[in-house]
Amino acid sequence: MGITQNYHLLLFLSVLAVILTVTHGDTSMDSHWLLRVKSQFIDPQGVLENWSSGADICSWNGLKCSENLNQVVGLNLSGSGLSGSISPEFSNLISLQTLDLSLNFLTGAIPQELGQLQNLMELHLFSNSLSGKIPDEIGLLKKLQVLRIGDNMLTGEITPYLGNLSDLRVLGLGYSQLNGTIPVEIGNLKHLKSLNLQKNSLSGLIPGEISSCKELQFFSIENNKLEGQIPASLGKLEALEVLNLSNNSLSGQIPTEFGGLFNLKYLNLLGNRLSGRIPSELNQLSQLNTLDFSRNNLSGTINIFNTQLKNLESLVLYDNFLTGEIPSNLCAGNSNLQKLFLARNKLTGVIPTELLNCSSLQQLDLSDNGLTGELPSGLDSLENLTDLLFNNNSFTGTLPSQIGNLSKLETLFLFHNSLTGKIPAEIGKLQRLSVLYLYENQMSGTIPLELMNCSSLTEIDFFGNHFTGSIPATIGKLKNLVLLQLRQNDLSGPIPPSLGYCKKLQSLALADNKLSGTLPITFRFLTDLSLITLYNNSLEGPLPESLFLLKNITFINLSHNKFSGSIHHLSGSTNLIKMDLTNNSFSGPIPSGLTNSRNLIRLRLGKNHLTGNIPSEFGLLSELNFLDLSSNNLTGEIPLQLSNCKKLEHLVLHSNQLAGMIPSWLGSLEALGELDLSSNSFHGTVPAELGSCSRLLKLSLSDNKLSGEIPLEIGNLSSLNVLNLQKNNLSGSIPSTIQQCMKLYTLRLSENFLTGEIPFELGKLTDLQEMLDLSRNFLSGEIPSSLGNLIKLERLNLSFNQLQGEVPPTLGRLTSLHVLNLSNNLLQGELPSSFSQFPSNSFLGNEKLCGAPMSLCSGSTGSDRKSLSDTTVAGIVVAIVFTSTMICLTLLYIMLRIWCNWRKVSISSSDSGGDEFKKGEEKWVYGDDQKKMNGDYWKVMNSTSMLPSPEQISPNTTCIFQLKMNTMV
């Protein structure tokens, strides 16, 4: 049977019930049905105990009888602690006019049989745990005036049959899980005064038909998923006093028609997507008490004027894009403004002096704007102010002393401005002050002793200023202090012992100062302390043993101080999440008690003097993310139990005395991003299993005793940025699979026993920037030309290998290179011209390498040598012909003697060489470099000398055969 058929059947039964009521109405039948209703309830408070057949029904708890006592007309069991379900038998109480089961723990569905209660005028089922849909049959209750069934777990759509309740005044469906659209049939409810649909999951548009509900006074649809524009027709609801459309996805502009809602007292449109300007027509709403347009996209200037809105108490416009200055007439006349929230806009200019006329103001928030100028000295005229928030602006000048006259002030936010000067001593008069935030300014001077008179202070934050002097010795007077943040100032001296008497303290941040001395033993009283940061000071000495009593500590950072002794006293808490003791002088073993904090995420103990083994109990720290034990004196092996720390991302153990083999189970730590085991005494091979650490960014195993080959699986580390395997005993070739590590930034393989050629594939690592260091190995072959693709590379070291061949011209493309070392190889040929910027020691130890900054390259004068040799031969021939002509009658013996003497002079003469040598010397030989290159130069140039003149011929004899050979070379 369909819903429509059910509806008509129930209508017939309802008419029949009315007839029966007239002819047979009596309380005896009502008692029968009520006892059946009682059986469906669970009554832990005994509210229904007197519901019995032996008692007068009109005396039963929660019942109301008619004047003639013949009928039950009212049932009110609100707030009775009942659970169970609502019985369908209620439908038999046909005279019932009021049914109130609100504020209980009832479950199940709303019975559709309730639609038979034709005399029902009020139905209250709100604040239970009812589920299911709203029955269509509720639409049959023609006399119903109040329907409040919200604050349940109702689902589905709002039934359109509610539009049939023509006499309905109050409809409350809020705080449920209803979805779908708002039915247009609600517009039929001409006498509706209150419509509450807030905090559901309603979507779609606001139906304009609601404007037909002319008597509507309360309309709330906040916290739904409604969208589209606000219907301008809502401006016709002249009786409206409360309009709440907040926290939806409404867009468009605010209707100017809202200016006609003359009875409106509360207007809330926050948390939508409204844009455009604030309509000036809203200034006509003289009855308006609260206006909230925050968290929208409104722009333009603020044109809300208190001259007309004399009843306005709360103006909330934060989180928009409003521009211009703060209106000077916000508080003109007899202002009642108590809350002014203009934060997170784009307001500029100074604080208008007229704003100080808002003597009724209690909360003033102008934070997160672009306001400038100094804080007005007349702030004390705002005598009722409890909260003053001026943070995140560009205010300058000092904090006026008149601030001390705001006797009701509880919250003062001035952080992130450009305030200077001291904290005025008058601030000590603020007995109600609870929160004081002055951080991120440029304030200076000492912390005034008078501040210790502000006994209500719970939070102090002076971070990032220039306060000097010591922490006041009387700070212990602030018994209510929960947070003390003095980080990043210039405070000096010891931590006052009285601080230990601030027993409610939970967060203590004194880092980045110049504090000295030891920790006070009074810290044992800070049993609520959860955070303590003292890093970057000069604190010293052993930690008080009583710190073991601080069981609630979650964050400890004592790094970069001079603390010494055992860290055992910090292991008393089982709530530790982060601990950083880096760069101190702590000694002794690592206490296994640290592992009692099973939620420990970050543990940094580097740069101390800790000894002993890494506790195997660390394997219990399943949440551990960061473990840094570097630069200590730890010994032994890496415990197997660490393999249980599956969330470990940083394992930093470098610079210890750890030994043994690098565990293969490290490859099972899939979250590992940094593994640094360098500068220890590990031996064995590099585990191939490390190739499974796909998230690894840094792998440093340098300065150990590792041997064997670099595993091919290293190429699986596609996210790797840093690979450092230098200073080991690794052998074999460089695996070409490294080319798959495309994100490498640094690659160091130096000081090993690697052989073979440099893989051509290294040229594919185009993100290499910081260094490529393959020095001090036994690499051979030529330098791959592909290295010229590494255009980001800044340092390249291939020295002390057995590399051969020429330096590839492609290396000239490495324009980012500022350190280059190719020395001590077997390289030859001419250097790329761009390498002239590097010092000559970058290339020493390559005898056949030439070009700037080395010696000149003889290869460039090869053609000259050939040309010069031909000239020499021609000269000899001419000389022979000339000599033969002139002394043709001379004996052969004399000629032979003359020729032998000439050859001897040619070889031994020190100033022969002619113009060609002078030209070469000018181009290639400079200063001290001439001494270094003279020998090599003569090895090349000796055979290219010009022939001597006849006067230089020596009488010494030389073999003719030898002479011919010398002149033909």
From TrEMBL:
Residues 690-803 form the Disease resistance R13L4/SHOC-2-like LRR domain. The chain crosses the membrane at residues 873-896. It is an enzyme of class 2 (transferase). It is found in: Membrane. GO terms for molecular function: ATP binding; protein serine/threonine kinase activity. It is a single-pass type I membrane protein. It catalyses: L-threonyl-[protein] + ATP = O-phospho-L-threonyl-[protein] + ADP + H(+); L-seryl-[protein] + ATP = O-phospho-L-seryl-[protein] + ADP + H(+). GO terms for cellular component: membrane. Its EC number is 2.7.11.1. Keywords: ATP-binding, Glycoprotein, Kinase, Leucine-rich repeat, Membrane, Nucleotide-binding, Phosphoprotein, Receptor, Repeat, Serine/threonine-protein kinase, Signal, Transferase, Transmembrane, Transmembrane helix. PANTHER family: SOMATIC EMBRYOGENESIS RECEPTOR KINASE 1 (PTHR47988). This is non-specific serine/threonine protein kinase. The lineage of its organism: Eukaryota, Viridiplantae, Streptophyta, Embryophyta, Tracheophyta.
